[in-house]
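Translate structure to sequence.
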């Protein structure tokens, strides 16, 4: 790895249990091109914010937790980590050199011409499919889903293990026909190891207020337990 490559870091979670298998060091990179209505880290969207760090210093910090994450690994999240491909790639390479499992949590919005080499370096890709319907995806995020679906196709071609993530938002994605269509679409992919249906929550709403940004889902309730169970049944969970 090139330890001198620099990037902008939003934050670190040194004992993560929700972003990949096992106990993980989760590095949240700054910057995201999407504007998801339900984003719980809107403060991570601006590309030029965060703390500028070099890959060598990040890896050195990761290695101080090596004993704690030896049965888990390292996850790069965001923001959108593939928006900083050189930095993300250097960290993934350094982790691999030190025998650490790596996961890349991405929306797949970055074109494969940029993202492909970084995706290849990760041991696991955690792909957040915002919506299978392109129009709904644009409504939810401000962008279409062509690059996301191309990312899944790419992972299938190279045999890269994938976890699918999909947020259940009442009035948008929490819809039986839409969920049925997504479940059917995903059946053809042999690299999918897990599907996570994540209930919409409003824990990040206060961040929107701090940024003086309108939170359009203020009146949208979290899904009920029964609605989540019904969604999971569609996917055979």
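Result:
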């Amino acid at each position: 790895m090139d330890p001198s490559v620099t990037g902008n870091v939003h934050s670190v979670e040194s004992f993560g249990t929700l972003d990949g298998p096992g106990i993980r060091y989760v590095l949240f990179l700054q910057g995201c091109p999407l504007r998801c209505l339900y984003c719980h880290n809107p403060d991570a969207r601006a590309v030029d914010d965060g703390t500028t760090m070099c890959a060598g210093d990040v890896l050195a910090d990761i290695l101080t937790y090596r004993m704690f994450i030896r049965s888990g690994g390292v996850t790069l999240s965001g923001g959108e980590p593939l928006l900083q491909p050189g930095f993300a790639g250097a960290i993934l390479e350094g982790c691999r050199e030190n025998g650490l499992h790596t996961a890349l949590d991405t929306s797949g919005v970055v074109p494969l011409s940029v993202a492909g080499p970084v995706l290849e370096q990760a041991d696991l890709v955690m792909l957040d499919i915002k919506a299978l319907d392109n129009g709904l995806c644009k409504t939810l995020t401000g962008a279409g889903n062509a690059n996301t679906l191309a990312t899944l196709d790419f992972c299938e071609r190279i045999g890269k293990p994938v976890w699918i993530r999909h947020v259940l938002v009442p009035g948008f994605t929490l819809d039986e026909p839409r969920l049925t269509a997504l479940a059917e679409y995903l059946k053809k992919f042999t690299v999918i190891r897990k599907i996570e249906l994540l209930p919409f929550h409003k824990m990040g709403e206060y961040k929107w207020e701090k940024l003086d940004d309108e939170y359009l889902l203020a009146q949208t309730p979290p899904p009920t337990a029964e609605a989540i169970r019904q969604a999971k049944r569609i996917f055979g969970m």
